[in-house]
Amino acid sequence: MVYHLVPLVFLLIRTVSSAPAASGTSLAAPTNLPSRETGKTPALGWNTWNAYGCNINEAKVLAAAQSFVDLGLKAAGYQYVNIDDCWSVRSRDTSTQRIVPDPSKFPNGINGVANKVHALGLKIGIYSDAGTATCAGYPGSLGMESIDAATFSSWGIDYLKYDNCNVPGNWSDTTASDGDWYNSNSAIRYRQMGGALATQSRPIQYSLCLWGNYKVTTWGARVGHSWRMGGDAVPQWSYVVSAITNNVQYLSSIDFYGHNDMDMMEIGNKGLTLAEERTHFAAWIFLKSPILLGTDLSALSAAQVAVITNRELLAFHQDTTVGGPAAPFKATTNAPVTSPPEYYSGKSSKGTHVFIINLSSSTVTKTFALSQVPNLGSGNFKIHDMWAGVDVSGTFSSSSTFSVQVPSHDNVAYLITSA
Ligand SMILES: *[C@@H]1O[C@H](CO)[C@@H](O)[C@H](O)[C@H]1NC(C)=O
Ligand SMILES: CC(=O)N[C@H]1CO[C@H](CO)[C@@H](O)[C@@H]1O
């Protein structure tokens, strides 16, 4: 969670791990798939961390929930209001062993907040850690999974983000016999919580936060609904570019109920231009990452709200017919290979989409040949601008090329259908 802690934990585990072990521990570990009652499409919501860090309380969480309603986020499909690290006191209850909400931050408990969030027609998420303590040093859930999952369920929790700090040395990984990282000690720490969540009456969406380590893209979908692909987001353009560059290597792990998580959004956090925020949003959309806003929603401009509530982009993200993301394609027969790629195409229930990003520092003309768009087929087509919500003038054929000026760091998004 806290970025500067990552290298420490990483080092601790990496120095002693090279591959997973299929040991007695792995044979006994739960094998529950994540719930199919939640998490089919990537989560849409908000989380306290990027906005407030540890400085959280009931008023801030409820203000965000109210903003979902007031700003049209709820109407656009945003559901999850998630509490990150630092919500509890430092010690468990000595008799029940439950984690205790901090009464100064949450005077009505987490249950009290959950009731109010649910009353607005929204869902609520909580945070814990697959170690002895969270990244900020509050009680972790390793070894206490059954108690904590039952507690979260009894409070009405709908979503769990599960972090990876403070892992005891005996949980590090040793040489594998079968090479499947699902059987690594690291995966087993997450499987233990997955098993505990599976026995609860509520479906709880399960977000694995182990920063892209332990080959999580090869086993994440067997354990949780999403898995982080790297370290914490920061409100900088270089972060947006690096998250895209990383994720495009692992697109085959994305489908219904399982999503690569490019981390929480930085829109509104002052490090990005509006064009960069548009591309931050669009890339998380077309790569089907969870989108958890991470700012004081009441301070967003109307233009920022328009970005995050774009109905057509959200429809691609939340499509219940096509699970996969858009993937890079070669825009013209002689187009250069760039890193990250600039041209992406994918299907939705509405048709075929093309997304183009430009990471250069000036406006450039971007061109693609319709014959290069995967599985578009032949015939006549109309091209619809998803950002503007209007059709581009003219009719196109499979022998057409299409050109558009793309401002620096901005993007364009199209729906292509038969004319
Ligand atoms: C590490 O030690 C704890 C406490 O003895 C034990 O419960 C746990 O199973 C051990 N983990 C592994 C992977 O052996
Ligand atoms: C990341 C990326 O490929 N950016 C491109 C933006 O457009 C300019 C001009 O076509 C390219 O040079 C960049 O490579």
TrEMBL record:
UniProt keyword annotation of 4Fe-4S present: no
Subcellular location: Secreted
Keywords: Disulfide bond, Glycoprotein, Glycosidase, Hydrolase, Secreted, Signal
Gene3D superfamilies linked: Aldolase class I (3.20.20.70), Golgi alpha-mannosidase II (2.60.40.1180)
Chief place of localization: secreted
Catalytic activity: Hydrolysis of terminal, non-reducing alpha-D-galactose residues in alpha-D-galactosides, including galactose oligosaccharides, galactomannans and galactolipids
GO cellular component terms, A-Z: extracellular region
MF (Gene Ontology): alpha-galactosidase activity
Entry-linked InterPro entries: Aldolase_TIM (IPR013785), GH (IPR017853), Glyco_hydro_27 (IPR002241), Glyco_hydro_27/36_CS (IPR000111), Glyco_hydro_b (IPR013780), Melibiase_C (IPR041233)
Name of the top EC class for this enzyme: hydrolase
EC number from the UniProt entry: 3.2.1.22
Protein's GO biological process: carbohydrate metabolic process
Family designation: Belongs to the glycosyl hydrolase 27 family.
PANTHER family in the cross-refs: ALPHA-GALACTOSIDASE B-RELATED, ALPHA-GALACTOSIDASE/ALPHA-N-ACETYLGALACTOSAMINIDASE
UniProt name for this protein: Alpha-galactosidase
Source organism (scientific name): Marasmius oreades (fairy-ring Marasmius)
